[in-house]
């Protein structure tokens, strides 16, 4: 839905609010982003698909969910590339690596595929996560891991918020901007408000909302 909103100029947060008013749906989990990850949901969805296949049932909606989730990560790479203006030789700062906040779990985290794709296109990565860096080092190579979120911005051509840790919700944006090479902030979790970020002087991009 966020991807469609971007095509037609709508705001996915307004759409999600309307959808959430339906009691059969609710609003708790209507948050756009780079796709789901973790140890449970991907495994369970895959298991359903395999059970269906073994029993001769074509579970199209489950297959589509898996394909869409994989595609969402590709779309995030394309979004980053568009905002940065090409990736070869660019330094990108990544805020958050775990598949969700308050865990060090890197299993099927969207950051893995996204960072790998960015590196293959020539980008150099600096990253910070409050808990998951040791686990990340096992699966993400050639990444410069730093000790605080502000160091991620040092000399970077863009800053990318990957995981919505509470720590990242109250960053000193003037300090961040002063340390960036270019004032580009790509928010894959819609943590910040576009107007406020524009007021700080950032070229700001998020998921499913007008720039």
Number of strands: 6
So, CATH architecture of one domain? Answer: 3-Layer(aba) Sandwich
H/E series: HHHHEHEHEEHEHE
Bulk shape: globular
Strand content: 5-15%
What are the low-pLDDT stretches, counting only 5+ consecutive residues below 50?
A: none
Descriptive report:
This protein has 211 residues and is α/β, with parallel strands linked by helices. It has a domain at 74-205: Rossmann fold (3-Layer(aba) Sandwich), CATH 3.40.50.720. The protein has eight helices and six strands. Helix 3 (41-54) crosses helix 4 and helix 4 packs across helix 5. The radius of gyration is 18 Å and the shape is globular.
What would a concise description of this structure say?
The protein is α/β, with parallel strands linked by helices and 211 residues long. It has helices at 2-8, 12-20, 41-54, 60-84, 110-120, 133-136, 173-179, 194-199, and strands at residues 91-95, 124-128, 143-145, 158-161, 184-187, 203-205.
How would you summarize the topology of this molecule?
Blueprint: H1 2-8, H2 12-20, H3 41-54, H4 60-84, E1 91-95, H5 110-120, E2 124-128, H6 133-136, E3 143-145, E4 158-161, H7 173-179, E5 184-187, H8 194-199, E6 203-205
Parallel strand pairs: 1-2, 1-4, 2-3, 4-5, 5-6
Helix pairs in contact: 3-4, 4-5
């Amino acid at each position: 839905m966020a991807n469609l909103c971007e095509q037609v100029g709508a705001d996915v947060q307004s759409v999600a609010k309307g959808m959430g008013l339906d009691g059969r749906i609710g609003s708790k989990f209507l948050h756009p982003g780079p796709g789901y990850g973790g140890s449970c949901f991907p495994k369970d969805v895959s298991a359903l698909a395999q059970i269906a296949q073994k029993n001769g049932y074509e579970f199209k909606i489950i297959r589509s969910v898996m394909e869409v989730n994989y595609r969402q990560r590709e779309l995030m790479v394309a979004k980053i590339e568009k905002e940065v203006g090409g990736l070869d030789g660019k330094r990108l700062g990544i805020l958050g690596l775990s598949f969700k906040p308050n865990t060090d779990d890197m299993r099927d985290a969207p950051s893995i595929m996204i960072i790998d794709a960015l590196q293959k296109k020539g980008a150099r990565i600096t990253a910070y996560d409050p808990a998951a860096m040791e686990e990340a080092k096992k699966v993400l190579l050639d990444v410069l891991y730093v000790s605080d979120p502000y160091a991620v911005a040092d000399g970077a051509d863009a800053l990318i918020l990957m995981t919505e840790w509470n720590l990242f919700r109250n960053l000193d944006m003037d300090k961040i901007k002063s340390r960036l090479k270019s004032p580009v902030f790509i928010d894959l979790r819609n943590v910040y408000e576009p107007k406020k970020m524009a007021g700080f002087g950032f070229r700001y991009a998020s998921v499913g909302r007008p720039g």
